[in-house]
Design goal:
Layout lengths: L3 E7 L3 H17 L4 E7 L25 H7 L6 E3 L2 E3 L5 H7 L13 H20 L4 E4 L3 E6 L4 E5 L4 E4 L1 E4 L10 H12 L3 E3 L18 E5 L3 H11 L5 E4 L6 E4 L7 E5 L13 H4 L6 H16 L8 H17 L11 H13 L15 H12 L7 H19 L7 H18 L4 H12 L3 E2 L7 E5 L2 E6 L2 E5 L1 E4 L13 H8 L19 E3 L5 E7 L20 H13 L1
Parallel strand pairs: 1-2, 1-9, 2-5, 9-21, 10-19, 11-14, 11-19, 14-15
Antiparallel strand pairs: 3-4, 6-7, 7-8, 12-13, 16-17, 17-18, 20-21
Helix pairs in contact: 1-16, 8-9, 9-10, 9-12, 11-14, 12-13
Organism: Leeuwenhoekiella aestuarii
InterPro entries: FAD/NAD-bd_sf, HpyO/CreE_NAD-binding, L-asp_N-monooxygenase_NS-form
Pfam families: NAD_binding_9 (PF13454)
C-alpha cells in the first residue's frame, strides 16, 4: 500500500483555502500518484473566510475592494478528479453573484465583508465535503501553538495539548495578536482601575453595540483609517441611525436615532483622512496606466531584479512610479490642475512627494487643511467634480502599480534593506491606494455636519487618563471621552506578534527574520529560511508574516495568486 502523505494547513482563511485548492491542482497537473491527506487547523467558525471575512459580522463592515475588481479577478475553481475523488468546480465571484441573485452592475459597489465571507466559506465547504467522503481530510477547529520539526516531517501542537504528526506543514495565518503598545497598555490599566470601557481590538466591530454605549456616551476613536470608518458606521447605523442622499448634491445627511451616541471624537498621529477611490469605472480609468506606461514600469522592476545585489533602497521603484504618474497626469490634463511643468519636472515633483508627504506645491492638496475641508476636496475629486491634484493621482496610480507588483513580482528577492524600504513606501501609500469607497467619506462628512463626529482633536491631541475617562486636549480646547476605541490595525511586524505559534518559532532559533520591522525570510515557494541560510525543512509560510520576502500580503485577490501555487508545485515536486 502506498504511503499516505499528511499535509497540514495551519490557518484556513482565504490564503489557507487557496493553499488547499492549489495543492490538489498541482497534484492533478503533475499526474502524481502520491496519496495526500490534508490536516486543516482553523480556530474560527467559518473556514475559508477566517476571522477577517467571517459571514456573521455586522453588515456595516465594508470591503475596500469593489465588485468590479472582484468580478474581474477573483476566478473560480476548476473541477478536480483523482484517486476516485471528485471535487466540484466552484464559480468565480462574478458568477456566484448571479447564482445568489445579487445585483452586479458597472457602478462601483463595495460589498459587505460578510458577503465576501459567505462566498469564501461556501467555496471551502464544497471542497471539504468532497474530501470527507474519501477520508482524505482531518479538520481541527483548534488553535495551533507550536510546530516542531521531527525526523521525517513535523509535529503540530494544539492549545489543548494534542500532537499531530504530519509530513509537511504550511502556515497560512493572517492577522495575529500583537503586544500592546505602551499607550494601549497604560490605557488598559487605567480602564481596569476605574471601571471604564476600552475596546483594544478593532474587530469584531459588533462588540461596540453594547449597553456600555448610550446616546450620552462620548466615544473617542484612535485612528482615522478604514477600520475607524467601520466602527463609526457601527456607532451610527448600528444604533439605528441612517443616512439619506441630499438632493442635487454628492453629500449625504445623517439622521440619528435616540440610542446612537451623540458625540464621536476621531484622532490620529497626523489627522489626515483616508482618500476615497473613484466613484465609477469611468473616473477610475482616468488614472489607469496605458500599455506603454505599464511596460516602462515593468522594465524598471526587471532591471532592478537583474542587479538585485546592488539595490540598496526603493529608489528604482519610486522613480518608475513617478514617471508613470507624471505620464498619466499629463495625459489626463482635461481633469487635472493646470500647470506648465514638463514631464521631467512633474516626475521630479512626484519623487519629492513620495519621499516627503508634506511637500507643498500648487498641484498638491494642502497638507494642513482642516480635516473636513480635506475630505470635501477628496470627495469632489473622487466624483470628478473638481480638478484632480497630483497627490490624488499618485495614490490611484499607486493602486494600479500595486496590482502589477502583487500579481507578477510578489517575490522580488532584493536585499533586506531594499525590501524594508519598498515595504515602507507601500505602507505609506495606503491612505490613498487602499482608500475606502466614496460612501465612507460621504458618511463621515455627514456625521461632522450633523455635529456628531468631532474633528477638533483629530491631529495628534494630548491625551490624559482621568477618573471618568480620557481627556483630549488640542488648541486650548478639551473634552472627556468615557469610552476609548482602538481602530488601528498593527502592521505585520514579526517581533510585535504575541501569538505562541510565532513566539515558539522565533525562540527555537531556527528561523531568520528579514528585519525587526518585517517578517520571516522565505524562499519563493514559501520555505522558511533558517539562520544558517538553509531552507527550513518541512515547514513553509505564506501570508502576512512573510512580509519583506514577499509583497502583497494584505490583498484578498492575491491570496489566490502565485505564492500559493508555487508552494503547492514545490511540495508535490519534493514528494
Amino acid at each position: 500500500m502506498s504511503k499516505l502523505y499528511k499535509i497540514a494547513i495551519v490557518g484556513v482563511g482565504p490564503r489557507g483555502l487557496a493553499a488547499l485548492e492549489s495543492l490538489y491542482l498541482a497534484k492533478k497537473n503533475s499526474n502524481s500518484s502520491k496519496k495526500l491527506k490534508v490536516v486543516l487547523f482553523e480556530a474560527s467558525a467559518y473556514p475559508g473566510a477566517g476571522q477577517i471575512w467571517t459571514p456573521n459580522q455586522v453588515r456595516t463592515n465594508l470591503s475596500n475592494v469593489h465588485e468590479r475588481n472582484l468580478s474581474n479577478n477573483l476566478a473560480g475553481r476548476e473541477a478536480l478528479y483523482f484517486d476516485d475523488v471528485f471535487i466540484p468546480e466552484f464559480p468565480s465571484y462574478k458568477k456566484w453573484l448571479t447564482n445568489t441573485d445579487d445585483d452586479y452592475s458597472e457602478k462601483d459597489v463595495f460589498p459587505a465583508r460578510a458577503k465576501l465571507g459567505s462566498y469564501l466559506n461556501e467555496r471551502f465547504n464544497t471542497f471539504r465535503e468532497a474530501l470527507v467522503g474519501s477520508d482524505l481530510v482531518d479538520f481541527y477547529q483548534k488553535e495551533v501553538i507550536k510546530i516542531e520539526p521531527s525526523e521525517t516531517g513535523c509535529i503540530v501542537y494544539t492549545k489543548d495539548e494534542q500532537q499531530i504528526e504530519v509530513d509537511e506543514a504550511v502556515l497560512t495565518i493572517g492577522h495575529q495578536p500583537t503586544y500592546d503598545s505602551k499607550q494601549l497598555k497604560t490605557w488598559g490599566d487605567h480602564a481596569e482601575e476605574n471601571n471604564l470601557k476600552l475596546y483594544e481590538d478593532p474587530y469584531p466591530v459588533g462588540a461596540l453595540e453594547t449597553d456600555s454605549i448610550s446616546a450620552e456616551t462620548t466615544v473617542a476613536l484612535r485612528g482615522f483609517g478604514l477600520s475607524m470608518v467601520d466602527q463609526v458606521r457601527a456607532l451610527s447605523i448600528g444604533f439605528g441611525g441612517y443616512f439619506i442622499k441630499k438632493e442635487n448634491s454628492i453629500k449625504w445627511q445623517y439622521i440619528p436615532s435616540e440610542k446612537a451616541p451623540k458625540q464621536l471624537i476621531a484622532f490620529s498621529l497626523n489627522g489626515l483622512p483616508p482618500a476615497p477611490k473613484p466613484v465609477s469605472a469611468t473616473i477610475d480609468n482616468w488614472f489607469k496606466p496605458n500599455a506603454q506606461e505599464k511596460q516602462s514600469f515593468i522594465r524598471a522592476i526587471e532591471k532592478a531584479e537583474q542587479r538585485a545585489a546592488s539595490i540598496k533602497d526603493a529608489s528604482f521603484l519610486i522613480e518608475a512610479l513617478a514617471d508613470m504618474t507624471a505620464s498619466v497626469y499629463i495625459r489626463m490634463s482635461a481633469h487635472s490642475r493646470k500647470h506648465k511643468l514638463s514631464f521631467q519636472e512633474l516626475s521630479q515633483l512626484t519623487v519629492q512627494l513620495i519621499k516627503d508627504a508634506d511637500t507643498a506645491h500648487e498641484l498638491i492638496l494642502e497638507h494642513d487643511l482642516p480635516a473636513l475641508e480635506a475630505m470635501e476636496h477628496l470627495l469632489k475629486m473622487a466624483f470628478g467634480k473638481t480638478a484632480i491634484s497630483l497627490d490624488y493621482c499618485l495614490g490611484q496610480v499607486w493602486r494600479f502599480a500595486l496590482g502589477i507588483l502583487y500579481h507578477d513580482y510578489t517575490y522580488l528577492n532584493l536585499p533586506d534593506e531594499a525590501m524594508v524600504d519598498v515595504v515602507n513606501y507601500i505602507e505609506a501609500s495606503k491612505r490613498y491606494s487602499y482608500g475606502p469607497p466614496v460612501k465612507s467619506l460621504q458618511q463621515l462628512i455627514a456625521l461632522v455636519e450633523a455635529g456628531v463626529l468631532n474633528l477638533d482633536f483629530v491631529n495628534n491631541p494630548t491625551i490624559t487618563p482621568v477618573e471618568n475617562g480620557w481627556k483630549l486636549e488640542k488648541n486650548n480646547q478639551s473634552i472627556i471621552a468615557q469610552v476609548m476605541v482602538n481602530s488601528v490595525i498593527d502592521a505585520p511586524q514579526l517581533v510585535a506578534v504575541s501569538s505562541p505559534l510565532i513566539q515558539n518559532l522565533l525562540e527555537d532559533n531556527r528561523v531568520d527574520p528579514v528585519s525587526y520591522k518585517l517578517g520571516l525570510h522565505t524562499l519563493e515557494d514559501g520555505s522558511i529560511i533558517s539562520k544558517n541560510g538553509n531552507s527550513h525543512q518541512h515547514i513553509s509560510l505564506l501570508g502576512r508574516l512573510a512580509k519583506g520576502s514577499i509583497i502583497g500580503v494584505d490583498d484578498l485577490i492575491e491570496c489566490f495568486g502565485k505564492p500559493a501555487h508555487k508552494w503547492a508545485d514545490s511540495l508535490i515536486e519534493r514528494l
